[in-house]
Amino acid sequence: MKGKLFIVSGPSGVGKNTILNRVVAGRENVQYSISATSRAKRPGEIDGKSYFFVTREQFEAMLQQGELLEYAEYVGNYYGTPLKPIEQATQAGIDVVMDLDVVGALKIRKRVENAVLVFVAAPSFDVIRQRLIHRGDVAPDVMESRLERARWECEQAGEYDYIIINDSVERATQELMAIMTAEKCKTMERIHIVKEEL
Amino acid sequence: MKGKLFIVSGPSGVGKNTILNRVVAGRENVQYSISATSRAKRPGEIDGKSYFFVTREQFEAMLQQGELLEYAEYVGNYYGTPLKPIEQATQAGIDVVMDLDVVGALKIRKRVENAVLVFVAAPSFDVIRQRLIHRGDVAPDVMESRLERARWECEQAGEYDYIIINDSVERATQELMAIMTAEKCKTMERIHIVKEEL
Lengths: 198, 198
Description:
The structure is a homodimer. The first copy, chain A, has helices at residues 16-26, 56-64, 83-91, 102-111, 125-135, 140-155, 169-185, 187-197; strands spanning 5-9, 30-32, 36-37, 52-53, 68-74, 77-82, 95-99, 116-121, 162-165. In chain A, strand 5 and strand 6 form a beta hairpin. Chain A is an alpha/beta fold. The model of chain A has no long low-confidence stretch (mean pLDDT 93). Chain A is 47% helix and 20% strand. The first copy, chain A, is globular, with a radius of gyration of 18 Å. Chain A starts with a strand and ends with a helix. In chain A, helix 1 packs across helix 7 and helix 5 (125-135) runs antiparallel to helix 6 (140-155). The first copy, chain A, contains 8 helices and 9 strands. In chain A, the strands form 2 sheets. A 5-stranded parallel sheet of chain A has the order 2-7-1-8-9, with helices on both faces. A 4-stranded mixed sheet of chain A has the order 4-3-6-5. Chain A binds chain B through residues 118-119, 121-122, 124-125, 151, 154-155, 157-158, 160-165, 174-175, 177-179, 181-183, 185-187, 189-191, 193-194, 197-198, and chain B through 118-119, 121-122, 124-125, 151, 154-155, 157-158, 160-165, 174-175, 177-179, 181-183, 185-187, 189-191, 193-194, 197-198.
């Protein structure tokens, strides 16, 4: 049985990475999607694991050859999602998970029809504010712009297939795992097994 | 949050009841739908638990008042699914599960839009045959007609939302539980929570 692509979005600070790390650690046949980037490798980062590190020229060539499902430019560096490793994994029956912003997620949905989009929301918007403040590494105006972005992202949640409210990391993790299991049980994924038996 | 109605179908002998019993025993806020019937109560059966025992006249009155989601007549007795207890439970946040034949399940889908239909299939059709033989309580021609019915039911699996292949009771039970959890995470069920926060 083929794997599926699960894209997880949600406002910064909502706990997406904690949930995804637990799912990848606690479940068989799941792996992260690895992004390509043109930014310089930082100490400790591993090519092909942290990112696929490429030059700007290589990135632009990948883009032109349709090898990227989506991309964006931040602070002069490209970041994008290569299609081929995702195809290889899902063909081999492995689910692929990724943390991606709303704009990127909605772009991918247009190209990968059966991608599953999961939005992680906080129990309240105030929780997002508190978590951003506790990180404490940004000026108030940057904070405001992040909150505005978070608000806009939550407004797009209706475009997603599933919503997880992260009021407990344990429950949120279980819910994402349940979604992944249920998606494999969908009739479209299994009807051929039943038909072959008849 | 409201509960949902989960209807489980599948050929006789496939193990639907074992799976449902485990789900009802192992999960919070789930209960069985209780059928109404006009047949006589047997020793050990409890009214309102095994069935709602009613007279033929009472059953026909329920039918005329639209209180039954579906019904059928077997060997001169009526059997049907009362709507009201399901509505009361789901309004109270309780999921309702039932084992129902394909004809009844597809009838209910027309009236309860968000009912979730799960088909339980055997790992192979030969397994169904073996399980029916092991029960050993029927004549060969009855067996053949049951197998024909099982075959027809499997042909309808494409109408269902999910398919579970019962090659392991543990896994099949986990899959049904995952489906129930994932259905509660669907965007339609939760978008109001995210919208209210904004």
